[in-house]
Amino acid sequence: MKIRIISAAVALAIVIPLFIIGGIPYSLGVMVVAMLALKEYLDMKETKKELPMLIKLLAYLSIPLILLTITVEGASLMTIDFRILSGIFLVLLLPMVVFHERKIYSINDACYVTAGVLFIGFSMSYLITYYNLNRLLLIYLFLITSITDTYALFVGNLIGRNKLLEVVSPKKTWEGFIGGSLVGTFISVMFYKTFVNPNVVLSNLIVITLFLTIIGQLGDLFFSAIKRYYDKKDFSNIMPGHGGILDRLDSFIFVMLAFSLFITLL
């Protein structure tokens, strides 16, 4: 427990100042987090099969390319530079033909790497997009994931009897899933209504927030399934007692992606 508290304190000591300062320091911080997340993702793959150094280099170079399309001064939500998408597909898929050896770089490897670059790159770009729109949105989304996860664990330990998806996460229960969603929705709605937009249509906010609590828990299960497949407990040990970047941001990533579908309704 002591190690977990120290790790969390160190992380907060880094994140909070960057969040307050904003601008270029914040954007650079997001880029570092995205690169570390990609490293964890690729390292997980390499527990079973080593990837060519060229492919890893191209993958790492793709992340800044994606994030640099989100300007420091402002961001246009829901816009994608398809030239970047085309370039990423070309540089990560065509080497499969060049290597021409399944043991070196197969179609499965190419799809895994490409999906990871796009998934991590574009989801992390929302950390900049939402910050530029209203940084309180990030606190709202963080509350959704943190409160939901906390009370899902609490309710599950207290009254949980029915397993949610035992093959992926043996400790999660339906009772915890429902309890976490209800409490996460209530607290997050109160925060949004009080600090973000007091004039929001309450019914829309409640439905959207409830949906996001569900998406967050499913996102947690998604990353748990990856770890289960590769027989790993955590993506890394960058935060002793907590795991890696992807272990901490698993739910948050999916919530950020899902929120982009509804932001115009709030």
Alpha-carbon Rg, integer:
19 Å
By DSSP (H or I, 4+ residues per run), the number of helices equals: 10
Rounded mean pLDDT is 90
| Topology as a string of helices (H) and strands (E) | HHHHHHHEEHHH
Helix content: over 70%
Describe the largest sheet.
2 strands, antiparallel
Strand content: under 5%
Structural class: mainly alpha
Uncertain residue ranges: 72-76
Estimate the global geometry from the Cα principal axes.
Answer: globular
| SS elements, strand count | 2
The total number of structural domains is 2
Query: Termini separation (Å)?
Result: 39 Å
Main sheet: which strands, in order across? 1-2
Describe what this molecule looks like in 3D.
There is one protein chain. This protein has 266 residues and is mostly helical. It has a two-stranded antiparallel ribbon with strand order 1-2. The protein contains ten helices and two strands, in the order αααααααββααα. Helix 3 packs antiparallel against helix 4.
Concise account of the structure shown:
The chain is mainly alpha-helical. It has helices spanning 2-21, 23-45, 53-67, 82-93, 95-99, 107-134, 136-159, 174-196, 202-229, 245-259, and strands at residues 163-165, 169-173.
What is the fold's blueprint, element by element?
Layout: H1 2-21, H2 23-45, H3 53-67, H4 82-93, H5 95-99, H6 107-134, H7 136-159, E1 163-165, E2 169-173, H8 174-196, H9 202-229, H10 245-259
Antiparallel strand pairs: 1-2
Key words describing this protein structure:
globular; two-stranded antiparallel sheet; mainly alpha; about 5% strand; about 270 residues
